[in-house]
Amino acid sequence: MTLRTKLLLAQVPLAMSLILVGAVSRRTIGALGENSQDILKDNYQSVLAAAHMRDAADTLGREALARALNPPTKVPPPAVAAAEKRNADFERELRFQENNVTETGEREATARVRAEWTRLQREIARVQAASPGVAAAGIYHEGVEPTLLTLHSATNEITTINQDAMVRKSERARRSAEKMSGIMAAVTVAAFLTGIFASVFLTDRLTRPLAVLAQAVRRVAQGDLVARARVEGRDEIAQVAHEFNVMTERLVEYRSSSLGELLQAQQSSQAAIDSLPDPVIVLNVDGGVLNVNRASETILGISAESSDPLAGAEPAVRAVIVKMQEHVLGGRGAYLPKGLEEATAVPTREGPRYFLPRANPVASEQGAVVGMTVLLQDVTRLRRFDELKTDMVATVAHEFRTPLTSLRMAIHLCADEAVGPLTNKQADLLFAARDDCERLQSIVDDLLDLSRIQAGRIELLRRSVSAAALIERTLDEHRAVARQADIELTMGAPSIDGVVEADPERVQLVFSNLVANAIRHTPAHGRIDVRAVPEPSAIRFEVRDSGAGIRPEHIPRLFERFYRVPGTAPGGAGLGLYICKEIVEAHGGRIGVESNPGAGAVFWFTLPAAAPLA
Known about the structure:
Layout: H1 3-10, H2 12-69, H3 77-99, H4 106-129, H5 134-221, H6 236-256, H7 258-274, E1 280-284, E2 289-292, H8 294-300, H9 315-328, E3 344-348, E4 351-363, E5 369-378, H10 380-415, H11 424-454, E6 463-466, H12 467-484, E7 488-491, E8 499-502, H13 504-520, E9 527-535, E10 538-545, H14 576-586, E11 591-595, E12 601-608
Parallel strand pairs: 7-9
Antiparallel strand pairs: 1-2, 1-5, 3-4, 4-5, 6-8, 9-10, 10-12, 11-12
């Protein structure tokens, strides 16, 4: 028996249930129709016949009264024909009623109608035979009128009997309909449950071999090539099980061959990268995903089996992978992160986890780049330790401020001889201590600014401010220091005036750091120019000095935390340019440097422009 035949047989109980429900429904509807037909045939037509007889009798009575009261005239043939027709109609309805007696008491009422009809015809004949006038009217009132009343009473009795019967039959039909409805509901539920039970039972027996086959497939997928699917029968499932067993036997033979050993080695290498706790992704030269480990699937949602493997990854992860592709596959070597700040956050059930991206090229035997391997190192703990270190530095720097302020005040008072005269050597020592205190205060301020930036607590109070006003304020603050160092500090030309949307206090900190660095690295008799240059939708600020310049190998790292160019004089913690970079980027701008050894340096940054000044 084929699988198709078995499936059809499994649906037979449901089909039989439907047939049973249909038969019961047809029987119920037929019974209800018969009840309504009985009411129509037995009673309603009798009511109509009684009404027609009353109408015909009334018409004949009115004509007899008119003949008794009016003077004698010749009756026209149409009137005679109409009277004969009404007599015939009454007789036809009476005969129908005599043949349609179905209720108790209806036969006696019909007999009275027959008797009164005969009497009415006789009385009408007497009126017609008498002379019009008092005699004919007396015959009408003594004979025709009482007979009409008696005839009406008999027809009304017929109507009442049949109407009562209609009410009884209607109520009986309603009760029968309710009973049939209950029977129908019970039969429907019973048929449905029986059909479902039988179909489920047959389907379960039909799909049991599929469960056996699925279990065997699962065991083979786990590496148990001894597993076999034992399915009896000649249907399609048995044939599939037979072919599966043949395939398993051939897999055993294949694994024992050299190609099988190669496949086993590949599986071992896959197991090795699956054992790594960090996500690993292998991409080809076109950027397609060749392989991933289990950590990539569970943590990042990347699957090599999908048509778009990176579709399930977070947007930040996809952006980092694309960035590394452009770097490595573009021939620029391995991609190495510069610090923990490049870690990418990935949301998980336990909270965000941070991964530091690394990428290495995969080269062919000829040395050409044919792909790349991406490793996302889990640095969540290191990131937390770094946050703890930042919090500790911020706490220590904050605690330094109070004793440092007291120390500076004491040294200033002593240096100003407020507490007594000083010798030259004492004054030199105090002046040196005062300079060190000022340098230490600058370092503490930088550390506090750094902690705020790293904690994401940098707040910008933006407003429209004049670019020229920012430059003038910077020049005013540093003219005295520049004059002491014999350096000319000016607003360079050409310089434009415009309006920028910025926090003046934060931007002033950027200017102060850049100008202070320029004064520190510019020799005596040098020159420092500060100017504003227009750009599309932005204003570029430049601080140009005539110092010794910066060597090219140091330029990429100038804006890193704690980086100081080797050989420079001590004076800070290497945080000033990093803070400048964070403030400028928080405004939506850019910052950079242009320099050549011996030709000075130009530090620049941009801020979004607002409407120009009037």
